[in-house]
Automatic annotation (TrEMBL):
This is Uncharacterized protein. Residues 383-393 have a biased composition (Basic residues). Residues 38-49, 56-68, 75-85 have a biased composition (Basic and acidic residues). Gene3D superfamilies: Ribonuclease Inhibitor. Residues 38-85, 356-393 are annotated as: Disordered. It comes from Prorocentrum cordatum. PANTHER family: F-BOX DOMAIN-CONTAINING PROTEIN-RELATED (PTHR24114:SF2), LEUCINE RICH REPEAT FAMILY PROTEIN (PTHR24114). InterPro entries: Leu-rich_rpt, LRR-containing, LRR_dom_sf.
Length: 393
């Protein structure tokens, strides 16, 4: 380094070379003092660039170590949170199981009969919980009974005071149920979690035809509550069996949320009835929804007309096949009758021939007997004549 050149303070700490150690002695690096020339200035500039690279590498390593420490700390915190969440879920699950077991023991009257009918697949196609008060534990018992049920096609749980937890339980049932076609949950108090759960259920369910979530307060103006409605809207793009969706009076507001619903309904090819009244959607969005629903109705009508024509063609084809089979059968019966008549005639002729033969044989036998008798009489007569001639001599 030149005597006139001055090393920047921020780089001086990176200019220290490692001391040389020989036994018990430590030798510091030699410090060069050179005159100021073009060569020494060039060497100085090169040294500055090397020190800047060292500084950058050191800073990068420091940042990397800090990031690794922060990531490790974050992983530890996440593991702790996951463990705490797992413990909380296990405790919550154990609590729910205890409540369900206690409620199962206390179940009586109409609710017990309903559970038994659902578990044994002997319920009516249309089931309603009218007159039965349901708490969260009973709702979970009802959902568990419907998991493998195929006899219940329509379930009405309107105005039961359900909350988010109850909605999540019913949505979990829909993920595995293969028989329910209509679910009424109008007038409850379902929220964002229930809306998200129904979105997950609609991605997996392929039997539900009608879902009524009217007046359930699924969304609020602003905040994060609209997340559930967005998840529900995204699920409509995947589901291909739902035809009726009632989402009226759910405080759905905002252009962004409305656009999610509109795009989902436009992407769906199965929805033919959609109710979004009582929400704050623009006129243009409602027109687009109505246009998409009308398109699906026309498409479904065309499919039904094609199915009717196909059934009619199949019926005509079946009718012609039956008519041909009847003609073939009639021909076969006619041939069989002709052959049978022919056989009967041959049998009758044979029987007549046998009868005539027997009669002829009988006549010949009688004639033979008459001849024999006549011959015997003649022989007897000849013997008598010979006796008379002998006496005359």
């Amino acid at each position: 380094m030149t005597a006139a050149a001055v090393m920047p303070n921020e780089l001086s700490q990176y200019d220290e070379e490692e001391p040389e150690i020989r036994g018990n002695l430590t030798f510091k690096p030699v410090m060069e003092v050179l005159p100021k020339t073009k060569r020494t200035e060039r060497l100085h500039d090169e040294k500055i660039r090397q020190l800047q690279r060292k500084k950058k590498e050191a800073e990068d390593q420091k940042k990397l170590k800090e990031a690794e420490v922060a990531a490790q700390r974050q992983r530890v915190n996440e593991q702790k949170k996951a463990q705490q969440e797992r413990i909380r879920r296990e405790a919550e699950l154990a609590r729910k199981k205890r409540e369900e077991e206690e409620m199962r023991k206390k179940a009586e009257g109409g609710f017990e009969q309903l559970l038994d009918a659902l578990r044994t697949n002997s319920s009516r196609p249309d089931v309603t919980a009218c007159g039965i008060e349901l708490n969260p534990a009973q709702v979970r018992l009802l959902a568990n009974s419907l998991t493998d049920n195929k006899s219940c096609l329509s379930l009405n749980l309107s105005r039961k005071g359900f909350g988010d937890e109850d909605g999540v339980a019913m949505a979990g049932m829909l993920e595995v149920n293969k028989g329910l076609q209509k679910l009424e949950l109008e007038g409850n108090n379902l929220g964002m979690k229930a809306a998200e759960a129904f979105g997950d259920a609609l991605r997996k369910n392929n039997t539900l035809r009608s879902l009524n979530l009217e007046s359930n307060n699924l969304a609020h103006p602003g905040g994060t509550a609209v997340k559930g409605v967005i998840e529900l809207a995204n699920a409509l793009k995947v589901n291909s069996t739902l035809r009726v969706l009632m989402l009226g009076k759910n405080a759905i507001t905002g252009t962004e949320v409305g656009e999610y619903l509109v795009s989902a309904i436009e992407a769906s090819e199965s929805l033919t009835v959609v109710d979004l009244s009582g929400n704050d959607l623009s006129v243009e969005q409602l027109r687009r929804i109505d246009k998409a629903v009308q398109r699906n109705r026309e498409r479904l009508s065309a499919i039904r007309r094609a199915e009717r024509r196909e059934r009619f063609d199949l019926y005509n084809e079946e009718f012609k096949c039956r008519q041909y089979d009847m003609q073939v059968e009639a021909t076969r019966l006619e041939i069989e009758a002709h052959e049978e008549r022919k056989l009967n005639r041959m049998k009758a002729r044979f029987e007549k021939w046998v009868e005539d033969t027997h009669e002829t044989e009988e006549q010949e036998r009688i004639a033979f007997e008459d001849l024999m008798s006549e011959a015997a009489d003649r022989a007897e007569g000849r013997k008598g004549k010979k006796g008379k001639k002998g006496k005359k001599k």
